Amino acid sequence: MQSNQKLINSDKKPIELFQEWFEEAKKSEINDPNAMNLATISSDGKPSSRIVLLKSYNDKGFVFYTNSNSKKGRAIKNNDSVALNFHWKTLQRQIRIEGNVSQISNAEADEYYNSRPLGSRIGAWASLQSEELDDRSTLTKRVEDFEKKFSDNDVPRPSHWNGYLVRPILIEFWQDMPFRLHDRLEFRMENNFWVSRKLYP
Ligand SMILES: Cc1cc2nc3c(=O)[nH]c(=O)nc-3n(C[C@H](O)[C@H](O)[C@H](O)COP(=O)(O)O)c2cc1C
User: What is the pLDDT of residues 153-178, one digit of tens each?
Assistant: First the structure.
């Protein structure tokens, strides 16, 4: 295991620090360094979380893709407050992000959807994500039906399959340190500027 037990570089903007840590995670994690926990709040105020993949990020925020009719999609429609969490075990680091989520443009979603393998594009049509499935064979049949429907391999993006941008209002960097005296650096958006402070572990 790699040890990174040095204090967080607090001279950087949060997105630059994110980039630095993410690039290191890409080198050290055995798989899915872009896996992040996404927490949402349902219409009756209940939290729910699951892993999704970060597909791009920039100054504006963090983008993932999903089915808008899924449990998370429905929660987001009702409440745009979400939280993300990356935990990179090899680096003993965590990044927590809180913010507001919105759908990206159809053009951007099309671009990413069209870059995916054929099987994944068919899958986006076949899966009624988060709905009850009576039997695996029903899903297999749906896949076959959509393969037939799109036998020319021209598979358009289903309107229920979308990209989402999480615009951060809080980003916290957490680095494991000896004796549980971890290093925490929190950035909070105030009047369009990032304000940072250290937190007790
Ligand atoms: C490593 C990993 C990556 C995943 N990536 C995605 C993703 O990018 N988009 C997605 O919709 N689901 C992804 N999933 C599946 C979700 O965790 C979840 O099972 C699914 O989206 C349904 O969640 P919901 O019922 O809360 O909407 C991933 C799961 C794992 C373990």
Answer: 899 999 999 999 999 999 999 999 99
